[in-house]
Amino acid sequence: MIRACDVADLPDGEAIRILAHVPIAVFHVDGAYYAVDDTCTHQDASLADGWVEGCTVECPLHAASFDLRTGVPLCLPAKTAVRTYPVVVSGGVIYVDTGVSEGVA
């Protein structure tokens, strides 16, 4: 598990980028938290810099959209899903389970 941030530091409708074995975007949407690979699968752009509406994030570069729950692309130009990660909130802190042991890059 990787510490993302305190709950208080991620307002609803916002996202942050954290560095793990790959960059990961963590989103706060209507009281729920989602984590996906931060890099759009169409072209190198940060999804944390994208536009969030409901459980969808739109890439800021070419407007590809992804479902934050599944990582599935919802429209072209993206054709490949982004990886999703389980998110755990404990003691007011948001953690992302990357499946990679800490200290391993």
From TrEMBL:
Enzyme class: oxidoreductase
Domain Rieske, residue spans: 2-96
Keywords per UniProt: 2Fe-2S, Dioxygenase, Iron, Iron-sulfur, Metal-binding, Oxidoreductase
SUPFAM superfamilies: ISP domain
MF annotations from Gene Ontology: 3-phenylpropionate dioxygenase activity
InterPro entries per UniProt: Rieske_2Fe-2S, Rieske_2Fe-2S_sf
CDD domains attached to this UniProt entry: Rieske_RO_ferredoxin
EC number: 1.14.12.19
Pfam families: Rieske
PANTHER family to which the protein is assigned, alphabetical: 3-PHENYLPROPIONATE_CINNAMIC ACID DIOXYGENASE FERREDOXIN SUBUNIT, FERREDOXIN-RELATED
Protein name, as recorded: Bifunctional 3-phenylpropionate/cinnamic acid dioxygenase ferredoxin subunit
UniProt source species: Prauserella oleivorans
